[in-house]
Amino acid sequence: MRVLGSAVLVMEFLVMCFALLLAKDNHEGSTIIAGAVIAVLLLLTPGLLKKRTGWILGSILQILMIAYAVVVPSMAIVGLLFGGLWIAAIVVGRKGEAARAALMASQTPKP
Fold it and tell me: What is the pLDDT of residues 63-74, one digit of tens each?
């Protein structure tokens, strides 16, 4: 669960850096700073995915990525794609953890 979520967040960091390059010529400094803050949070959040707060912060960042489409319109499509990947990471991760827990429960300790 963490590996896929981490990969999504790091790739979003790279996409956000490219979005900042697109925004730097046509927008004011406050929108660039806001985008930079989102990018830094995207880079730091994978370390927090061991806890529930990391997943909540990651979900909030997905919304902020889509909202950055106000500055760079193409971010709407990219944000929706990564939002789908984020949801897939959550769903697949939960199924994987459930399967792992079932496997661990079915194994009997050897005397």
Answer: 999 999 999 999
- Per-residue confidence at 111, pLDDT binned at 50, 70, 90? low
Gyration radius of the chain's alpha carbons: 17
Give the dihedral sign, CA 20/65/83/9.
Answer: positive
Q: Is the pLDDT confidence value at 38 over 70?
A: yes
SS3 of 7-39: HHHHHHHHHHHHHHHHHCCCCCHHHHHHHHHHH
The Cα 61–Cα 89 span in angstroms is: 15
DSSP state of 69: G
18 has pLDDT over 80? yes
Residue 33 neighbours by CB under 8 Å, 6+ apart: none
Looking at residue 71, the DSSP 8-state letter turns out to be T
